[in-house]
Amino acid sequence: MADLWLMRHAAYEGHRPGHHAPPEAPLSAEGRAQVHRALPLPSRITAIVTSPLPRASQTGRLLSQLTGIPVIATTPLLAEWRAPSMVIGHTPDTYPQEYRTWRAQRATNPSLACGDGESLAELYDRASRCAEYLADVRRGQNGGVLAVSHSVLLSALTCLDSRPQNPEAVFRQDWLFARVVNAASRP
């Protein structure tokens, strides 16, 4: 089976550490520069799949333009964790109390969602489906596949085996913008 490589989308307009990005946030000039700095990609990568959110799909398309590696699919399975709309664009110091309360309870009750957000259980279920999807894509390739996604979903993909013991690990992993990681080397 072909290798699987993971990449967090590059920086987006309006990025601030610790805040939840609006879904429509496009790449920034710095993000486009990060994509250039991520090159060269590992030579075994022959296909790219992306999240449909602009910051990830634009990262994938720019990589494709620069390398000639085709974007073969865009799938909502690679979309970012769906944060509740009440926190989009906010930083931790401005989170509503309802969200703060949910954050304190989410590890002990992974099925609990906050408002219109995605629960940890829903996130891990989607990550499991995404892992199966990526395995199918890899079986159809002669080389490696690069999946361009978002930090929380990428973390969920790499934490599938440990989720019962530490369901919150997805929020604690540090995924640098536009850094390519071999999925086999992640914990």
UniProtKB/TrEMBL annotation:
Pfam family membership, one: His_Phos_1
Transmembrane region(s): none
InterPro entries (alphabetical): His_Pase_superF_clade-1, His_PPase_superfam, PGM_Phosphatase
Gene3D superfamilies for the chain: Phosphoglycerate mutase-like (3.40.50.1240)
GO MF annotation, one: phosphatase activity
Protein name: Histidine phosphatase family protein
